[in-house]
Amino acid sequence: MEQTEKIWNRKFILLFITNLLVLAAFYASIPIIPIYCQEIGITGSKIGIVLTAMSVATILFRPVAGYLLDNFNRYHVYLLFLALFCLSFPSFIAFPLFGALIVIRLYMGAVYSVCGSATMTLASDVLPVTKITEGISRFAFTVSIGMAVGPYVGIQVQNNMSSKASFLTIFGITVVALICVACCRIRYPKVERKKFAFKDTIHISALPFMFNMMFLMIPYGAVIAYSSILAQEKGLTPFLPYFYICLVAGMLTSKLSTQKMIDAAKHRVLVYISLVILICTMASYLFLSTGVHMLVAGYFFGLGYGILQPLFQSFVTGTTPAPKRGVANATYMLSYDVGIGIGSLLMGCLQETIGLPTGFALTAIAYVIGGIIYIIHVDGYYHRLRHHLHHHQ
Question: Which of 17, 127, 239, 358 could cross-link 135 (Cys pair, CB 3.0–4.6 Å)?
Fold first, then answer.
């Protein structure tokens, strides 16, 4: 592994751009797929099945992703799976059938689970050892921005062009990402390959962070999946694209204002601040009636997650020895898959019984649970692990 002392070295920058593009492409497809399904005559619960198929495949394939990354040349694994990921978008146009779309989504979930875990791992490998925690908290920001920019791009392209054009645009974005990775040329020493064993596919010490973040991602899943329907109900659809822009603005603000505190290890304060912001934001959905309120909610939602996501990612990377990072990231990333899956599934049930505004407000309970888990266990656990790792280095 070649190392330089700077965080922003050439390879890190290329990986940063790649991850941003891949995540933007992935999240751009989320609002497009339901509308595309309706266009080709797939309706109701069948749309839900198409959407959820991917989450199921991602969750099932994540352990295999960790194994591949730690037992083969990580760079070659990533190149291969990113190329496979690109192919999923034209497939939507090529096979406009219910059964085929489920297969495409399952395929997408499997290859995406490898891509999602790989970039984080590669980025930590090209960073100087002393700068890994700082570097990864900056790199994890691509996740937040991709999650927010993606749906905005998807909605804009679809509103102004066709669904087919949207899928081709996303395909173009992923090809650019593939070119960026091809320019990286990261060299790895030969890896000693272990036999695949299921017990090695979960990194035990990353589980508390995963479990904690899973609760914190439930409201996110609800908001991403149901904001457009809520906007329709309230007659606020014109504000929807700007909701995502405010989400990005909130995330950018959090990045600029809290990076020094993250570097100074003031983690506890940051977790408390972000949870208070997020609980108030979700509770305010009870009274949502204006576009301005929706945009302000988007901004504070972005602010909260812009702090939490990079912070938890740096907890995982900062406490894991290099050879285990692939498996640790794959374990931690399950929190996004499971949390977002639960959130969107839960809102489907709550929408019919108590309505979306009350449903959104109720998801704030997940933050309270997440906060309690953090205070009781995760905070002290992180400091013990960190101390232990430094002691052995």
Answer: 127
Cβ count near 321 (within 10 Å): 11
Token pair 């694994």 is at which residue? 77
Q: Domain of 256?
A: 202-393
Model pLDDT for residues 92-150, shown as the tens digit of each residue: 988 888 889 999 999 998 998 888 878 878 888 888 777 777 787 778 777 777 877 88
pTM, to two decimals: 0.76
CA distance 338 to 221: 9
Q: Which among 179, 155, 189, 188 is positioned nearest to 169, based on CA atoms?
A: 155
Q: How far is the CA of 35 from the CAs of 24, 156, 176, in angstroms? A: 18, 13, 26
Exposed, middle or buried by CB within 10 Å (0-12, 13-18, 19+), for 4? middle
Rounded Cα–Cα distance for residues 373 and 352 (Å): 30
Rounded to an integer, what distance in angstroms lies between the CA atom of residue 278 and that of residue 300?
7
CATH (domain of 35): 1.20.1250.20
